[in-house]
UniProtKB/TrEMBL annotation:
Residues 102-421 form the Glycosyl-hydrolase family 116 N-terminal domain. This is Non-lysosomal glucosylceramidase. SUPFAM superfamilies: Six-hairpin glycosidases. It comes from Manihot esculenta. Belongs to the non-lysosomal glucosylceramidase family. It comes from the Eukaryota. Non-lysosomal glucosylceramidase that catalyzes the hydrolysis of glucosylceramide (GlcCer) to free glucose and ceramide. Keywords: Glycosidase, Hydrolase, Lipid metabolism, Membrane.
Length: 977
């Protein structure tokens, strides 16, 4: 529960000795067994309070009643087709969210399982877009200790026993186990992707136990970071005078969360592998025709550690071997019979029956001696199937194949490679952790916010060009976007309500998809892009010498395709207006993934999907995807093929998506110096800019908003010119000019510069009030509100190494106003930056979003402050998110950071993408040399262009661009090399 201390005190350090005795820390000071100096920490007996969700006010409910009715109807319609709507505020999980989360398990994109700080395995996301938050309590580690002389023995689950359903008399299930741990002397230490649980004399006062959880999340390693596996290394230190026999037990239910274990036909199978790695495979036949999953739990046998297994036990009295029988065997013997390895696959489970397995690892620990025992968990679900039929193989299958035996190979490699993983993780993290100029809370929060790249529903497939699809078990050709170039004639091709042609200046792009998914294609364009790719590779290699952010391995550029959700409650892949904030993490750590996401959106810009969609806010009907418009997302039920799952508003009329695309592409281009990427995406960049001209209705080169929530704040109406979208547009003009110059489109560069000069004058004239930029140029009650995000365009301009949009005095004045009002006038600056604040110091209550504190936006504002030389204000601003979300006195949002919270701490949308924007702060603190050396645009040059500065059809340098790169880009150019 939140205490008033949250708003009156500040704790600047969390040394491990405040949680673990100095003696124990000294005993564990070897082989990474001890907790790190910088980490997020909790005692295991800490209360995991139920989290409080926000509620709309009466007036907000009245305004949204029509939307609510339409959304309810849409949710029901989707359910009738067996699908979950991407936004469903009406269905609540049976498991109420609580402050119990911890570091998730595994790498990226192969499904995820989280592990709470008290030891429970929860938040199951094995099937794409499906998240079950409930813990499976049969999944546990337990310990059994006996000493020479037999006068002391201990048997306990290594998790506190406070949970519903335990302690029933005569129970044959897990209530019969020893739930003896109080957690008073046990602590959890998190530094993603690792976590340490220290049992400081629990349950045996003379035994110190460290459990180290390791997952293969390794920046720039595109192989191991895709692996669905985790390792648990137990370090045992015997401080007693007698040697102790210690048996550790790992139990696992054949389940993918929820009640999936009741569906039947599940099979368990023991195995003995190489290098002493032995365990049990749990073959899970998923319901609803989802692809099967195989789990592997294993331990590593060494000279001092023996491994035994119990392949099957159940949780009911009807089971042949019950959970109570299994526990009794371990209490009595400390191990299982070796003959169990020879029993082969079990009989398939019956519907309603729970099938579990156990792996035991036993060792003698001498008096004052030490011992290490390692377990591993892996899950193999090689094929993912989306609800409209498209199936793909996950990224890790490129290295482990699609056999169900892959899980066995995964646990073997995890147990034999985890030390190398740790070395690479420490090499990555140490420079930041040892930087004494950084606040301690920032260091570990920076790394821990990366949990979302594992637990945010990520999907990583082994399909670089999506050229092959599997539908209903049959291989078919992927629906391909076929690009034609036709300088003199635009040919329109239609199939039903299909995607149709796009005319872009002096070349024509045709993207055709039929409604029934039959493939329709034009003659394939010959391609020869080797020289362009070579030039891009040379630039990338050169930039490696300049920046540690870029890939340094010799791996192929083929890193597959990557998706991540906007949030586990907003089920849309790669939501682009939010990716704008989150993408700094991917660019810094996995730049090839980031470039591929941008390529996916670049292709989308050049296509149109003519199928009709009902937009729920107004009830009007429009097409799914307009050509030239950046899609809101890559879809839900058929990503890449059916984009714009979001249907509240018509996002083709949003004003922030296209500028955000241009800004992200330029930042990525400047950071990587990848010329082939620049050539590939430039036509989409130019098209995205030209598309926005329709929103400049008074010929002042500045776009206007249209009196509805036409940007990422999709409940906050904007009238006329807005600070948020207008600033993004100014920045996009500057970025487009810089990129045009670099790829050789000199005319467009000059045109964008000319428009920038004119638009900047109009922007400042309409919005600058002497201390900040007004929310918008309208006459509504909140038009003069102070928006925290008003300088988002300036943030990207500075992050990409471009000149500032405004003079330094205006930038610093605006940011100081945001700090003084949006930050410091809300609970003394201990909650982050509220989105909207009236100039009289009262929170803007126009809508739910104006009165919310958005965690990711707060981090973005802090990054902007850093770039403006306001580091003290930046860290105070961002610290509010730590205090409210992560601190011990806060609201309990660790490892589930929500989109935002209200000023009383009630959340909206847990486990959300945007808080990855904290990596925008780190980007600002350590700009790579490639960014610092980015070309500066001299906007004061005399321009010999038409006075209107309208984008117009022109004999653009597109072909010259391609020739400069020695070939046409792969995306749209018909190669004549």
């Amino acid at each position: 529960m939140v205490t008033s201390n949250l708003f009156h005190c500040r704790k600047n350090s969390w040394p491990p000795e405040e949680y673990v005795s100095r003696t124990t820390l000294q005993l564990l000071d070897f082989d990474s067994a001890g907790p790190p100096e910088h980490a997020w920490r909790r005692r295991l007996n800490s209360h995991a309070n139920i989290l409080k969700e926000f509620s709309v006010t009466f007036m907000e409910a009245v305004k949204m009643v029509r939307l609510g009715i339409r959304l309810w109807s849409y949710v029901r319609e989707e359910a009738s087709h067996g699908r979950k709507a991407p936004i469903d505020p009406f269905t609540r999980e049976s498991c109420k969210p609580s402050a119990s989360q911890g570091v998730p398990l595994g790498g990226m994109g192969s499904g995820s399982i989280s592990r709470g700080f008290r030891g429970e395995f929860r938040q199951w996301q094995i099937v794409p877009s499906i998240c079950d938050a409930s813990p499976v309590m049969a999944n546990q580690f337990s310990i059994f200790i006996s000493r020479d002389g037999g006068n002391k023995s201990y048997a306990s689950v290594l998790a506190p026993g406070q949970h519903e359903g335990l302690g029933k008399a005569g129970d044959e299930g897990i209530s019969s186990w020893g739930w003896n741990l109080s957690g008073q002397h046990s602590t959890y230490h998190a530094l993603f992707p690792r976590a340490w649980t220290i049992y400081d004399g629990e349950p045996d006062p003379d035994l110190k136990v460290s459990c180290r959880q390791i997952s293969p999340f390794i920046p720039h390693n595109y192989r191991d970071s895709s692996l669905p596996t985790a390792v648990f290394v137990y370090t045992l230190v015997n401080t007693g005078k007698e040697r102790a026999k210690v048996s550790l037990l790992f139990t696992w239910a054949n389940s993918i969360g929820g009640v999936s274990h009741f569906s039947g036909d599940h099979v368990n199978e023991p195995f003995i592998g190489e290098d002493g790695v032995s365990g049990v495979l749990l073959h899970h036949k998923t319901a609803k025709c989802n692809p099967p999953v195989t789990f592997a739990i294993a331990a590593c046998e060494t000279q001092n550690v023996s491994v035994s297994v119990l392949p099957c036990f159940g949780l009911s009295q009807a089971s042949c071997i019950t959970a109570k029988d299994m526990w009794g065997k371990m209490v009595q013997d400390g191990h299982f019979d070796r003959e169990n390895f020879n029993c082969g696959p079990s009989m398939p489970s019956s519907p309603g029956e729970t099938l579990c397995a156990a792996v035991s690892a036993s060792a003698w620990v001498e008096a004052h001696g030490k011992c290490t025992v390692a377990f591993a968990l892996a899950w193999s679900s090689p094929k993912i199937k989306f609800s409209k039929g498209s199936s793909y193989h996950r990224r890790y299958t490129k290295f482990y194949g699609t056999s169900e035996r892959a899980a066995q190979n995964l646990v073997h490699d995890a147990l034999t490679h985890y030390k190398r993983w740790e070395e690479e993780i420490e090499k990555w993290q140490n420079p930041i952790l040892k930087d004494e100029s950084l606040p301690e809370w920032y260091k570990f929060t920076l790394f821990n916010e990366l949990y979302f790249l594992v637990a945010g529903g990520t999907v990583w497939i082994d399909s670089p060009l999506l050229t092959e699809d599997m539908r209903d078990g049959h291989h078919q050709s992927e629906e391909m976007e076929t690009m034609d170039v036709n300088v003199t004639e635009a040919q329109v091709r239609r199939t039903k309500d299909a995607v149709k042609h796009t005319t872009i200046n002096d070349y024509n792009v045709t993207s055709v998809r039929s409604e029934d998914n039959d493939e329709t294609s034009n003659a394939e364009c010959p391609r020869n892009i080797e020289s362009a790719k070579s030039q891009g590779k040379e630039n990338m290699d050169h930039s490696l010498q300049l920046s540690p952010l870029l890939e340094t391995s010799n791996e192929s550029d083929d890193v597959g395709r990557f998706l991540y959700l906007e949030g586990v409650e907003y089920i849309m892949w790669c939501t682009y207006d939010v990716h704008f904030y989150a993408s700094f993490a991917l660019l810094a750590l996995f730049p090839k993934i980031e470039l591929n996401i941008q390529r996916d959106f670049a292709k989308a810009v050049l296509s149109e999907d003519g199928r009709k969609v009902k937009f729920l806010a107004e009830g009007n009907v429009g097409i799914r995807k307009a050509r030239g418009a950046v899609p809101h997302d890559l879809g839900t039920h058929d990503p890449w093929n059916e984009m714009n799952a979001y249907n509240i508003h018509d996002t083709s009329k949003w004003k922030d998506l296209n500028p955000k695309f241009v800004l992200q592409v330029y930042r990525d281009f400047a950071a990587t110096q990848d010329m082939s990427f620049g050539v590939d995406v430039w036509p989409a960049v130019r098209t995205a800019m030209e598309y926005m001209e329709q929103f400049d209705r008074d010929d002042d080169a500045l776009i206007e908003n249209d009196g509805f929530p036409d940007q990422t704040y999709d409940a906050w109406t904007v009238h006329g010119v807005s600070a948020y979208c207008g600033c993004l547009w100014l920045a996009a003009l500057q970025a487009a000019a810089a990129m045009a110059f670099q790829v050789g489109d000199k005319y467009f560069a000059e045109l964008c510069k000319s428009k920038f000069v004119k638009a900047k004058s109009a922007f400042e004239g309409k919005l600058w009030n002497g201390s900040y930029f007004n929310y918008d140029s309208g006459s509504s009650s909140n038009s003069k509100s102070i928006q925290a995000d008003q300088l988002a365009g300036q943030w990207y301009t500075a992050s990409a190494g471009l000149p500032p949009l405004f003079d330094e005095a205006k930038i610093r004045s605006s940011l100081q106003k945001i700090y003084d009002f949006n930050v410091m006038k809300v609970r003394g600056g201990r909650m982050g930056a509220v989105n909207g604040m009236h100039p009289n110091g009262k929170v803007d209550e126009t809508c739910m979003q104006s009165r919310e504190i958005w965690t990711g936006v707060t981090y973005a504002v802090a990054a902007n402050m850093i770039l403006a030389g306001m580091e003290d204000q930046a860290f105070t601003t961002a610290e509010g998110i730590f205090l409210g979300g992560w601190s011990e006195e806060g609201y309990g949002y660790w490892f589930q950071t929500p989109e935002g919270w209200t000023t009383d701490g009630h959340f909206r949308s847990l486990i959300y993408m945007r808080p990855l924007a904290i990596w925008g702060m780190q980007w600002a603190l350590s700009l790579p040399k490639a960014i610092l050396d980015a070309p500066k645009i001299n906007i004061m040059d005399r321009l010999l262009l038409s006075p209107s500065t309208r984008f117009a059809l022109h004999e653009t340098g597109v072909r010259k661009i391609a020739n400069k790169a020695k070939c046409f880009g792969a995306s749209v150019f018909h190669c004549a090399c």
